[in-house]
Amino acid sequence: MAPTATSEEPKAIVPVPTKAVHQQDHVQIKAKTPLQAISHGICLTGVPSFPDFASKRQWQLEHMAAAFRHWSGEGYVEGMSGHISVRDPEYHDAFWTNPLGLHFGLLRASDMILLNFKGEAIGGNRSRPANSAGFLIHGAVHKARPDVHAICHTHSVYGKAWSVFGKPLEMLTQDACKFYGSAQSVYNNHGGVVLGEEEGIKIAQALGKGKGCILRNHGLLTVGETVDEAAWLFTSMEKSCRVQLVAEGAAREGVEKVLIKDEEAKFNYDAESDPEFAVHHSLAKKLSISTAADGLLPVPDTEALHLGGELANNLKNPDRSLRSHSQLPIHPVHVSTAALHCSEGNAWIVVNGVVWDVTGFAAKHPGGVEVIQEHFGKDGTEAYNSIHGPGLISKFLGPEKRIGELEPNSSGILQRKTENQKPKSSLPDLGSIITLSQFEAVAEQLMIDRTWGYVAGATEDSISHRANYDWYQRILFRPRILKKVKTVDMSVSVLGQRYDLPFFIAPTSSVKLSHPDGELAQARASVACGVPAMVPTMGSYSVQEIVSVLPPGYPFFLQLYMYSDRSDARKFLQAAHKLKPRGILFTVDLPVLSKREVIKRQQLGSGSQSEREIAPPPTNTSLDENIGWEDIAWIRECCPDVPIFLKGIQCAADARRAYEHGCAGIYLSNHGGRALDTAVPAILTLLEMHASCPELLGKMEIFIDGGIRRGRDILKAMCLGASAVLAGRPFLYALSYGEDGVKKAFKILSDELRMAMQLVGITSLDQAHPGLLNTADIDRFVYAGDAHPWARKVERSKL
After folding, report:
1. Strand ranges inside 266-374, DSSP E
2. What are the TM regions of this chain, as residue ranges (predicted)?
3. 478 domain residue, yes or no
4. What beta strand segments (E) does 685-775 contain?
5. Residues with catalytic roles
6. % residues pLDDT > 90 (the chain)
7. Contact 599/450 with Cβ under 8 angstroms?
């Protein structure tokens, strides 16, 4: 609105270099010529720039509260009358204003109400109504003047007194020159309290393109690009009215008034229309005095020359009084307010009745960007609860991102139904389950397509996924007889700790897709069966929540994905270290997200956007694509004395290198066929270690997963030197029955393992060895090392 007083200068004049941006308050300062610098004295800051709408909105509301404090100090208070409004920076057909009946001296940013042009309160503090007359005036002006961002109107004493004459201000002083010519107007048709829309429209018409309007027998109204400008102009207009009244009294006694000449008045108008020259500084002194007098803000140590800087200094104080009522409860958030925050730069989501600021979080979300973006400004409770535990969001975002609670019994936000399972009325009795394949069949019937696609699906053509199972069937036993196998010991020792069984639950993400208790049920079942718990980074529940269901000191292994933000990764590891994990399973086989075609087909085949929501796998938006061998030392630095395993070893050479880097163990895995398709099954990698580095089998712990469906599969892996065997999908399927289902899966596998040990002729897993197996059918596929004549790098010509 107020044009910047800059004109094109001759090229010979070099602008005085000034600091372009204050890092502290993000204020942009224009360069000035020497002449401008001399005439203005000092280059003052202008309107700040902001990284997003939320930051600008907060700045506007804080300055709005500051302007009300100034009004209170100046005595511009008259009962419940008077109002300031500020257009919302993002939604231009809505504006913020003060609530009815709250004293100007007590107003804070959190008190303001957001109104649309229909007069509906769509956001902010809805505990009090807005002033209806104020809405009619401000709404009409905001509609008529898109260039206006702020409006000030109240019934100050001198403004009211001068308004009775129905005349414009004369150019008596420099203050009055701000309203030179068409910058001011007079509305002569005021008929009392504004009760109709028509009256507001007439006031807007009377204002025209000006900066201030004298409402006859009523008061003053000023407008500006910012609330600072509008409030500063109001103060100037009120002062000018006072001077005008005093001058009129003197003139009646015969003292001649001398008006400022037109050319001088216009020069003053142009000079003071530059926001950098005056708009942001005249209110500063009064603001600091009025707020300090109330004991709300300290008087700054330095002489600030603009309102923005003054507020920035004041708001550094921990009291932050202009921002919110620290002594009062937070106002509930209405659904319409949350609905406004629906863009990348300004995003809120409602989860379980609490409103969270998720601005900038979508790109970091381990489950992908889309599922967060689809819920901007909406209630994401159903989608969240289908995957995550109730406390995970607070742990991930932090309490500072908690906006407040949703207004009770409110409605209007689209709630999207996110069911992971069909009704369980037809669930077979758990006692009828005797194989893991039955659990799989039940889960397939129970889970809806998108959930089943995520849990059971794999990469591309699922070749590695199928091979994981098939290749165990190609290994045959060579049983021994007459071994006295009545008593069998299935326990194993890992890192010096004895466990009752040699198989554990593999760490997987989003376990809540199978059952509301998710990892909590798996952890409790692990304790009941005497095996360590496996705690994933990307679980439905936080690491702390999962560990909390374990007995004090109970052993658990932490599966680790490396966050791309290393500061976040360090905080995560340091927090986990305090929980004393027995080992860290550092996942290294999925630096980028693989192509999950089953999931993609389901997305494309869905009839609506809401039906396209899928269970989230980890994505490379939040995970580090540049992990390297040096990260082992970095993890060790974060978690000293915690043994490190590399999860996702797929060749003997990497197994050897892991040992050389001081890893306590390795975890042979192709990610259940969910990483690179046609990657070798883990059992083949174990055979490759026998061929290439057999010495490692006795020097480090070896975990293995992939394709385990029977107790006999576990025994085959143990015969080939595995320290422990892990299974993922079978326990996810069993979790359809909750904790009892997981325990039943443990029992099925342990019964089968016991029987396999007895039938092969051993009573302890210490007796398991490769001689009990015939691997001839797959031996030809074992990589025998780089000594093969064809195993050399091909030198390609460089054209």
Report:
1. 342-343, 346-351, 354-357
2. none
3. yes
4. 701-705, 724-727, 773-774
5. 561, 589, 671
6. 52
7. yes
